[in-house]
């Protein structure tokens, strides 16, 4: 029987609440929702939704890398947007990170997100 393993890296933003960046259980990695924070300064990117999406996906990439995974191991993403007006822009950015065998996903618009950001993404990754 395996146990869960808590994973955190200083190359991604520190948690802003009572949670960890990622938890690994067996071969599955659960990555907490990431917002467009710069890890070194914990400042928000606010230069447009494309820049915000790039920062979020870079943060996710660092968490995946720290755990020994990559974007190709992601099986599920959940995207939360402050407005569906950003859907096309987010898709363009997202496609640059998930280039083959894209994961399952949902994208939903919500009333508000932490720190009033426009985007938050969480992922689940798995590898044999």
UniProtKB/TrEMBL annotation:
Source organism, top-level taxon: Bacteria
Protein family: Belongs to the RutC family.
Official protein name in the record: RidA family protein
Organism: Sphingobacterium kyonggiense
């Amino acid at each position: 029987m395996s146990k869960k393993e808590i994973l955190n890296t200083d190359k991604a933003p520190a948690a802003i609440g009572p949670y960890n960046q990622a938890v690994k259980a067996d071969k599955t990695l659960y990555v907490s929702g990431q917002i467009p924070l710069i890890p070194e300064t914990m400042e928000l990117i606010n230069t447009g939704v494309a820049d915000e999406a790039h920062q979020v996906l870079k943060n996710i990439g660092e968490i995946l890398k720290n755990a020994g995974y990559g974007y190709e191991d992601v099986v599920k993403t959940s995207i939360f947007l402050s407005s569906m007006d950003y859907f096309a822009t987010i898709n363009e950015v997202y496609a640059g990170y998930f280039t083959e065998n894209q994961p399952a996903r949902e994208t939903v618009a919500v009333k508000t997100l932490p720190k009033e950001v426009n985007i938050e993404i969480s992922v689940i990754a798995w590898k044999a």
